[in-house]
Amino acid sequence: MARVVVDVMLKPEILDPQGQAVASALPRLGVNDVTSVRIGRRIEIEFAGEPDLDRAREIADKLLANPVIEDFTVRVDTTGSDSRESQPAEAPA
Amino acid sequence: MSTRVGVVTFPGSLDDGDAARAVRVAGGDAVGLWHADPDLHGVDAVVLPGGFSYGDYLRGGAIARFAPVMETIAAAAREGLPVLGICNGFQILCEAHILPGALIRNQHMHFRARDQRLRIEAVQPVWTNAFTDSQDVVIPIKHGEGRYVADERTLDELEANGQIVARYVGGNPNGAQRDIAAISNAAGNVVGMMPHPEHAVDALTGPSTDGLGFFTSMLKFLAGAPADQGAS
């Protein structure tokens, strides 16, 4: 499967209050050496044929990210969907 | 013939009913427009109401921007159609790049619903001719993502061109840059605002009737009355 991964992040100069809220919760976990948390979004796009980075870039620029406040990167997912599915993050209950 | 004002309903719009009512209270004919129908049905102006169009998925307004009706509205707005975007409608106008900048999560992370004092900073011909310069008004706000941001150059341009229509006074509810509550495009026919003027048109249900001025301004503009003060 031709999967492209798009990562969207707020631009560095844009305040991320969500990330700040997470950062301020970390001391409650006993974590005191984290200076910053910023939260973005990972989007996986599956193409029917070959992964098309140019089309993915266009999709990201027009819809997935707002270029006024966000930056994005696109890359072909080389891990492959099979290996991913064989390693679930959490065992089903 | 009374003026026909379109109010768009997207999936997830909440304030289309109140916006239509505000149009009627101001003396216009409210015409319901549907997100999937690109036809504007001959309306003379459009209101994009508040709510959570398409569930605010991705970003507020990001998907509504591509609704068939928005393609038509974007083209008509460039030709001078009066358009008022309220709250989610403001977000849609920014996402569609009809207005500059963006609206992001409130700085303090809290949803804010309160009666908000604003200062009208720009008395413009289309949407604010009923107000006086620097007039204070009270209009409700209710949003979690209303923090207006833009780069410094854009903000300076907005200031220089008189496109900052209203600012928050008595406390900035969301961390908006330069206390911006409402802006217009350069031509002044498109205004986006986070506060809800449609909720301030009736003393029974609103904190004031100050919101009515946005709707009466537009109707007066379309009726061809001189845009300057005291013309009526």
From TrEMBL, chain B:
<keyword id="KW-0315">Glutamine amidotransferase</keyword>
<comment type="function">
    <text>Part of the phosphoribosylformylglycinamidine synthase complex involved in the purines biosynthetic pathway. Catalyzes the ATP-dependent conversion of formylglycinamide ribonucleotide (FGAR) and glutamine to yield formylglycinamidine ribonucleotide (FGAM) and glutamate. The FGAM synthase complex is composed of three subunits. PurQ produces an ammonia molecule by converting glutamine to glutamate. PurL transfers the ammonia molecule to FGAR to form FGAM in an ATP-dependent manner.</text>
</comment>
<dbReference type="GO" id="GO:0005737">
    <property type="term" value="C:cytoplasm"/>
</dbReference>
<dbReference type="InterPro" id="IPR010075">
    <property type="entry name" value="PRibForGlyAmidine_synth_PurQ"/>
</dbReference>
<protein>
    <recommendedName>
        <fullName>Phosphoribosylformylglycinamidine synthase subunit PurQ</fullName>
        <ecNumber>6.3.5.3</ecNumber>
        <ecNumber>3.5.1.2</ecNumber>
    </recommendedName>
</protein>
<feature type="active site">
    <location>
        <position position="198"/>
    </location>
</feature>
<keyword id="KW-0963">Cytoplasm</keyword>
<dbReference type="GO" id="GO:0004359">
    <property type="term" value="F:glutaminase activity"/>
</dbReference>
<feature type="active site" description="Nucleophile">
    <location>
        <position position="87"/>
    </location>
</feature>
<dbReference type="GO" id="GO:0005524">
    <property type="term" value="F:ATP binding"/>
</dbReference>
<dbReference type="InterPro" id="IPR029062">
    <property type="entry name" value="Class_I_gatase-like"/>
</dbReference>
<keyword id="KW-0658">Purine biosynthesis</keyword>
<keyword id="KW-0436">Ligase</keyword>
<dbReference type="GO" id="GO:0006189">
    <property type="term" value="P:'de novo' IMP biosynthetic process"/>
</dbReference>
<keyword id="KW-0378">Hydrolase</keyword>
<keyword id="KW-0547">Nucleotide-binding</keyword>
<comment type="subunit">
    <text>Part of the FGAM synthase complex composed of 1 PurL, 1 PurQ and 2 PurS subunits.</text>
</comment>
<feature type="active site">
    <location>
        <position position="196"/>
    </location>
</feature>
<keyword id="KW-0067">ATP-binding</keyword>
<comment type="pathway">
    <text>Purine metabolism; IMP biosynthesis via de novo pathway; 5-amino-1-(5-phospho-D-ribosyl)imidazole from N(2)-formyl-N(1)-(5-phospho-D-ribosyl)glycinamide: step 1/2.</text>
</comment>
<dbReference type="GO" id="GO:0004642">
    <property type="term" value="F:phosphoribosylformylglycinamidine synthase activity"/>
</dbReference>
<dbReference type="Pfam" id="PF13507">
    <property type="entry name" value="GATase_5"/>
</dbReference>
